[in-house]
Design brief:
- This protein is about 40% helix and about 10% strand.
- The chain is of the alpha/beta class.
- The strands form three sheets. It has a six-stranded parallel β-sheet, sandwiched between helices.
- α14 links the parallel β10 and β11.
Length: about 500
Amino acid sequence: MTTLISTTDTITRDALAVLQPGFTGTTAPDWVLRRVDEGLASVALFGRNIRTAEQVAALTAQLRAERDDILVAIDEEGGDVTRLEVRTGSSFPGNLALGHVDDVALTREVARELGRRLAECGVNLNWAPSADVNSNPDNPIIGVRSFGADTELAARHTAAYIEGLQAAGVAACTKHFPGHGDTAIDSHHAMPRIDVDLETLHARELVPFRAAIAAGSKCVMSAHILLPALDPDHPATVSPQILTGLLREELGYDGLIVTDAVEMQAIAGTYGIERGSVLAIAAGADALCVGGGLEDDGTVQRLRDALVAAVRSGELAEERLADAAARVRALAFWTQGAGAAAREGTAPGTGIGSDIGLVAARRAAKVTGSAEPLTDPAYVAAFTSASNIAVGDETPWGVAAELGRLVPGTETDTYSSETEAPVAAVLRDAGERRIVVVVRDVHRHAWMAEALDALVAERPDTVVVEMGVPQAALRGALHIATHGAARVCGLAAAEIIARGTDRPQA
């Protein structure tokens, strides 16, 4: 075999090293392999790249045949946000479920098992956990991705998650610094703004990040949010005051700083992705996430060339780019050692192993009210709203599939704010069958609350399953709050519905 020696100059190699791009396909395209040879040190996997665990392992092996220390990143929070199980729903409950149980040992074990599965597939950087304190119940982007609205709870579970994930040899990436919980705007669409004072930021938003740093989080992801108390002019991703002044100098963080996706409108719509990327590296970021929406070689070339041009014009210090690239390579080196150590380690300490996700989901289900066991097929009405972009609309959610397996003959349909007379439609479609209504975040959708009230008035034996943040008034003869819409959360709820509430849970 002929070994090819790249002649790419140092600045260009460093510019490629700070990119974490995505691509299309379940194998690595030629352009990705070529860029790896030229200096690309990371790639990102999304749902479009994944079919099976075995296929992902083959994909990562293909990449490592080109560069054995490549960082392979993924956005695998568990719960509602899953890429590894994008077509089936996650085997692990998300943060809100874990926060509701409030057992740090359980959180640590769930994260460790999730990390073990990622490592088996060759993934060594996970853009998780979300350390955001969900202090604004109307938040459209965080919600169940947060451990909760309690600052100290969020901090201790953030630390436990990091410890578990990194024990499996997978680097944790704590997000979204300095805290995305008090927003009512999705930064995928526009620039969120948090108007709180410094005292509040330090007492609330920053507490989980301090815990993450103390726990040794190998990576921190910046948020595309404006916090005038810290920087009145620039969002965190492009703010030297926030990334260098606050995160590096004041909080003492020395690991990798990666941006949230630069093609999100909060950055792309304000600065453009090339200008935004240059500003982010200059502000103190070390790596640029791109590829959720832009997954082509042209995007990589544009960002590489923008960084090189900025160095050569003097806008971006060559030393800053070199330092950023060095941090990427240092993290890659850590994953090699940590991965080897994890493979030599023992099995998960609980002895539950791969079932830990379902165990956690069952513990997270909060049941209010009562119902007889379901002996005949039910009718599941799913009340749906627009998808959270971070979650996507590709991943199934609900209880119908799981309930149908437990009680064959159960049927389902979906209803939205666009459905004409949704209550009448549900009553017509259900007939005499027990109605189970599945919702997410009723408190954020007035039409859902009104429809639930009317439906329960007509059918008092209705079962309500809330799979979002359980902020609204409880409705239904039986109300189940799952604290997330992972597949295992749906299974836990289906088990409760099928057996009724007159027998203890196994």
